[in-house]
Design a protein that fits this description.
Keywords: ATP-binding, Isoprene biosynthesis, Kinase, Nucleotide-binding, Transferase. The protein has 276 residues and is an alpha+beta fold. It is built from nine helices and ten strands. The strands form two sheets. Strands 1, 2, 3, 4, 5 and 6 form a six-stranded mixed sheet that branches. Strands 8-9-7-10 form a four-stranded antiparallel sheet, with helices on one face. Helix 1 packs antiparallel against helix 3. The structure holds 4-diphosphocytidyl-2-C-methyl-D-erythritol 2-phosphate and adenosine-5'-diphosphate.
Length: 276
């Protein structure tokens, strides 16, 4: 049996540069990962099965369309043959929330199957499968703090902020990525700054914040509340939202912030974690 963590992805900065002819947008982003996420468990079995457990299981249809089963099928077709598998996805991250839960699950499935089959983690067939599964899947497969270009497939690791205490907050409003990109105003506000992760994050932006607030105005409230907690070094939305993050200097500041936030907004999802 193989157990693989699917860590949540953060976009510490996300600059939208241009609308492309293929319907996607050209991005420059700083990907980072935290110590917590979903969990994928795989075991060889007599018959195939797929079960979703965990606090957000009910947000996902128990269907074959899941990114986990799609990743397993693509691995068998393009990387190495695998026999029938019993797969469990423990869904701990909110769905459609800008922290790439589905992409992380797909990447974790590829990593687990590669381990099971003796395939190297940087095998070009594995990377190609990741690209076919979604824009964020190559970054999630790599799992390191990295600058991302194109749709996120051009990756360049940078020195990270490992150990930085993080609070993730989601108002439990699912946000459609397509709806957010459709509301981007088409203005290129400039490239991702140079430097290490701390410098890029500090000088960077998330250009999807304004369009995401048009889709889900509560995101503005989440950012204001996190700013108002005090003690946060950086507050920003991740991806296309609605999850926002706050980076703290100490775990004590993070714990104090979480306590205040959970008392005032008990209906919001909140996770105390750290950058890896
Ligand atoms: C915004 C990011 C940043 O990491 O993260 P999330 O918010 O999903 O976590 C990603 O680029 C999300 O990429 P991806 O995983 O491809 O998003 P999808 O949900 O498949 O895209 C849905 C739709 O959003 C639009 N889209 C997406 C990505 C992109 N670079 N340009 C786009 O215009 C397209 O219309 C696409 O059909
Ligand atoms: N394992 C999965 N986890 C989350 N979403 C999934 C999964 N498989 C398929 N999906 C679909 O992918 C969409 C995007 O989900 P998700 O990756 O959580 O978004 P985001 O990248 O914005 O955090 C969801 O609307 C859901 O229907």
């Amino acid at each position: 049996m193989i157990v693989e963590l699917a860590p949540a992805k953060l976009n510490l900065a996300l600059h939208v540069r241009a609308r492309r002819a293929d319907g996607y947008h050209e991005l420059e982003t700083l990907f980072a990962f935290v110590a917590d996420g979903d969990q994928v468990t795989l075991a060889p079995a007599e018959r195939e099965s797929f079960v979703v457990t965990g606090p957000f299981a009910s947000s996902l249809a128990q269907s074959d369309d899941n990114l986990v089963t799609r990743a397993a099928r693509l691995f068998a077709e393009t990387v190495a043959p695998v026999g029938p598998l019993a797969i469990t996805l423990d869904k701990r991250l909110p769905v459609a929330s800008g922290i790439g839960g589905g992409s992380a699950d797909a990447a974790a499935t590829l990593r687990a199957l590669a381990r099971m089959s003796g395939v190297a983690h940087d095998d070009p067939r594995l990377v190609a499968a990741a690209e076919r599964l979604g824009s964020d899947v190559p970054a999630c497969l790599l799992g390191l703090t990295a600058r991302g270009g194109g749709r996120g497939e051009r990756l360049d690791p940078v020195a990270g902020l490992a150990g930085t205490p993080v609070l993730l907050v989601n108002p439990l409003v699912a946000v459609s990525t397509a709806a957010v990109f459709a509301r981007w105003d088409g203005i290129d506000r400039g490239p991702l700054p140079a430097g290490n992760a701390a410098q890029v994050a500090a000088a960077g932006r998330n250009d999807l914040t304004v369009p995401a607030k048009l889709v889900a105005p509560v995101i503005g409230e989440v950012i204001d509340v996190l700013d108002g907690l005090g003690g946060a070094r950086l507050v920003r939305m991740s991806g296309s939202g609605a999850t926002c993050f706050a980076l703290f200097d100490t775990t004590a500041d993070r714990a104090a912030g979480r306590a205040r936030l959970s008392a005032a907004y008990p209906g919001w999802w909140c996770l105390e974690t750290a950058l890896t």
